Amino acid sequence: MVGPVAKREGVAHLQSVMDLSERRACRIVGADRKMVRYRSRRPPDTELRARLRDLANERRRFGYRRLFVLLRREGERSGLNRIHRLYREEGLCVRKRRARRKAVGTRAPILVEAQPNARWSIDFVHDQFANGRRFRVLNIVDDVTKTCLGAIPDTSISGRRVARELTAIVERHGKPGMIVSDHGTEFTCNAMLAWCQDSKADWHFIAPGKPMQNGFVESFNGRMRDELLNETLFFDLDDARAKIAAWVTDYNNERPHSALGYLTPTAYAATFTATGDRLRNTDQLRRSPVAQPTPHGVQTAEALTVTG
């Protein structure tokens, strides 16, 4: 018996079953009599517990750390340890999914210029409707700010469609310094080669069978599957487009990102200056797994951030 609760239960058991006095029961258990008589005066925290349960039910894939950030945004002044204690007392937890086998090897860091649009990652993620028909989502992520620039769901996405979507995103956010993808046929077709030539975009293909070299968008795909695709039922394409768009908006503007110091991607992007060449708070740069090649155009060490 190590904890006070266990010792109190032991003393109560000895008193009720063996009819021992409190003094003798405490001596046997090794408990102090003041500790046995102590009654907690903590407030019940009914409202905080109810709000914590509501947030946990609303965001079932969020642990206590992200829930703590959301409560702080609402003005709750409790510390992280208190939120963790209430989280455990309410029996809340994030169900662990089956882990896949991970490749063993060394990771080589890449130098990524510390500014938005320094590098984009692009990849597909697949799911199906309630009737069993499959669809896919084209995800485009900014590797520095972690912003989801686009999540386009459709039953079929060709290389020409990818080129059109990239053109629209470039018009809204500007041209990237580099785009990273795998060797999917949508990215190696003539339409994409022509788009790269016309836009003069620097396109990098990862090594075959090495998805860890495209780690930013693979991580984003995992978050999308864990928090949206596995938790949501899609009835048709319009329903999928509406729900995915709402989730992307929440991801960019509301969801705390652990790799950004629990800032949102939008808030983290706001820490850059107007020219985008330097951060106002360089302590918030974090390390993340990335692809191996070094992007072109990186010259000065002051403007670089090592991630990996």
UniProtKB/TrEMBL annotation:
Annotated Integrase catalytic domain residues: 112-273
Highest rank taxon of the organism: Bacteria
Extract one GO molecular function annotation from the record: nucleic acid binding
Q: Which InterPro entries match?
A: HTH-like_dom (IPR025948), Integrase_cat-core (IPR001584), RNaseH-like_sf (IPR012337), RNaseH_sf (IPR036397), Transpos_IS3 (IPR048020)
Q: Which Gene3D superfamilies match?
A: Ribonuclease H-like superfamily/Ribonuclease H
* One Pfam assignment: rve_3
NCBIfam families noted in UniProt: transpos_IS3
Name of the protein in its database record: Transposase InsO family protein
Lineage, highest ranks first:
Bacteria, Pseudomonadati, Pseudomonadota, Alphaproteobacteria, Hyphomicrobiales
